[in-house]
TrEMBL record:
Species the sequence originates in: Scophthalmus maximus
Similarity-based family: Belongs to the GLTP family.
Functional description taken from the UniProt entry: Accelerates the intermembrane transfer of various glycolipids. Catalyzes the transfer of various glycosphingolipids between membranes but does not catalyze the transfer of phospholipids. May be involved in the intracellular translocation of glucosylceramides.
Stored InterPro entries: GLTP_sf (IPR036497), Glycolipid_transfer_prot_dom (IPR014830)
Superkingdom of origin: Eukaryota
Protein's cellular compartments: Cytoplasm
Pfam families with a match to the protein in the record: GLTP
Principal location: cytoplasm
Protein name: Glycolipid transfer protein
Amino acid sequence: MSLLLDNPFQELPPDRAVDTDLFLETVSHIPSFFDCLGSTVFSVIKSDINGNITKIRAVYLKDPAKYVTLQAIVEAERDAHGAQWPKVGATLALMWLKRGLRFIQILLQSLADGERDENNPNLIRVNITKAYEQALKKYHGWIVQKIFRTALLAAPYRSNFLKALSRGEEVKEEDCLANVRQFLVNYTVTVDAIYEMYTNLNAELDYAV
Ligand code: 03F
């Protein structure tokens, strides 16, 4: 079975509110994916994503009834933290988590669209670079950009990456890409909704680490 479709994102309600509990449950399956990629450089990325999920969950668990949606958390922190906000708590964790999710979205979409380097058809560096430039690069100073370049060199071959998304089973490329496309439908809507919320609440920051 496909890793992606085992833990699909749910369709959003008409008001596009993201249910905190469902969101946390769904994203919590992403970090384990890095274990099958081999290189230790991926453990840095895994722990960053894990850390942000943990930070959001810690806030949620303080009052699950109050924090039913992600927006309820961000608004409550805005009201509680004054000038420190939005560089604080779950608001900051979700700000970064969503960038990682956007990176994954653009990478998967690029693969699904068949974008590739004709000279190196079994590499996914063009797809990864596109995702990085659009989702993350401007938030990274030179040291982190160097980590990116290391990760890029350690990136799996296209065939192995697709196999990993299919839980190590031999699945036809077209079948795997069909799963990716199906996964991307609700995933993209969810990531877009979170971005829109950050814009509407004026919660986005553009400092670089
Ligand atoms: C800031 C920053 N976080 C952190 O400093 C950087 C960590 C390392 C970033 C390295 C970038 C490399 C990305 C490219 C990898 C390509 C590999 C592709 C393999 C296929 C923030 O950290 C903290 O998060 C926040 O809590 C803190 O408070 O200022 C704040 C303080 O600092 C980031 O830049 C977020 C990085 C997210 C990277 C996500 C990459 C995902 C890569 C691969 C996904 C594979 C697809 C899996 C699909 C599975 C679907 C189920």
